[in-house]
Design goal:
Layout lengths: L11 E5 L2 H8 L3 H10 E10 L1 H4 L10 E8 L6 H10 L4 E7 L6 E11 L7 E8 L3 E2 L13 H10 L12 H27 L3 H22 L1
Parallel strand pairs: 3-4
Antiparallel strand pairs: 1-2, 2-3, 4-5, 5-6, 5-7
Helix pairs in contact: 1-4, 6-7
């Protein structure tokens, strides 16, 4: 299934976002500005999914959903660039990344779970970023999802990106938290595998291998 959706025509916004405006609103560092220059060709605010453009009611955590299209100069985009944009816009964002032209054009969808902070009522917090694979562009878009409100629409869009099967009655917030734990555990497994490959002493290799088996078992359990 594609993560690209046919958004309502009335939700089209089509406004180009100047990079300097994003810098101003997010307080971007010199490093971040350099990443924008090296990796980003253009940012277009493609769709504004709001009650008046979708006929879906707003919810406290999801008053609107924005869809930004980012034309890339390179096949890769540092997630710090997306986090910079997210920090400048106080609404959940779905990013559609595009790269290449003509027959070589491709697209992917990336988003973090973005919600109001439990501590600061005026602030927002974001999860890690989830992304689809690259798809040939133009790709046939999926029909716009059926949803009861903007919150359930947002859940549908995000769940399409999260690489875990939701458990019975598992909320989106809990699913995201588990996905973050899986990522952290995966990195721990990778570090332990690297240690094992470098270790020369037999006794230490046995110890590390035992730790690695335990970590892999924990990772498998988290992913279920």
């Amino acid at each position: 299934m594609s993560a690209l959706f046919a958004y309502p025509r009335q939700a089209e916004f089509g406004r180009t976002l100047p990079k300097n405006k994003i810098y101003e609103h997010s307080g971007a560092s010199t490093r971040l500005k350099d990443l924008f220059v090296a990796q980003v060709e253009q940012i277009v605010w493609r769709y504004k999914l709001a009650p008046e453009t979708t006929n879906l009611s707003a919810k406290p955590g999801v008053p609107e959903i924005q869809v930004f299209q980012i034309q890339l100069k390179t096949p890769e985009l540092n997630h710090d660039v997306l986090r910079c944009v997210d920090s400048a816009v106080q609404f959940p964002i779905i990013f559609e990344l595009t790269h290449g032209l003509g027959a070589e054009a491709k697209a992917r969808v990336v988003a973090a779970y973005k919600r109001p902070s439990d501590v600061d009522g005026a602030g927002w917090v974001s999860s890690i970023y989830f992304e689809s694979g690259w798809m040939s562009a133009p790709t046939v878009r999926e029909p716009f999802p059926l949803a009861l409100d903007l919150n359930s629409l947002y859940e549908h869009l995000l769940r399409r990106l999260i690489p875990l099967t939701a458990r019975s009655q598992e909320s989106l917030r809990d699913l995201v938290a588990r996905a973050e734990q899986v990522l952290a555990k995966s990195r721990e497994v990778e570090r332990t595998e690297a240690r094992l490959a470098k270790e020369k002493q037999f006794n230490r290799k046995v110890e590390i291998n035992s730790t690695l088996r335990q970590l892999r078992a924990e990772l498998e359990q988290m992913g279920r």
